Predict the structure of Molybdopterin synthase catalytic subunit 1.
Amino acid sequence: MPHPAVRLVAISDEPLSVDSVLASLEDPTAGGLVLFVGRVRDHDGGQGVTGLSYSAHPSALERLQDVCDRIAGEYDVTAVAAVHRVGDLDIGDLAVVVATTAGHRGSSFEASRALIDTLKAEVPIWKHQRFADGSDEWVGSP
């Protein structure tokens, strides 16, 4: 059963909305809200990046839910949200948005850091980068 503090979990092929994530976290008891937005950058490892695409394993949404539930259970938070984009993305596009709320900022900072780090380590979403020199690279694939 999902943890009651988990408000939004999604993998989408549509552009992500920070406003939607923030709206899902509304809670009058939350004094701290920490938001992380991961964007597509124009470089990686000293090479110019022209774009990328994300692919998700069929189990990715379930795994993302599991990560959010675990973070909600391990940290003193009032709400948790995580959304990740799949498909083709351009430089500057939002790739991932995670956020937590808590009664105090410290708990929210800790939980948000754990959320993005655990998501990146455990959720089977793979990045295919395209470089300016015409080469490409898969990141995070098995």
Remarks:
- The chain has three helices and nine strands.
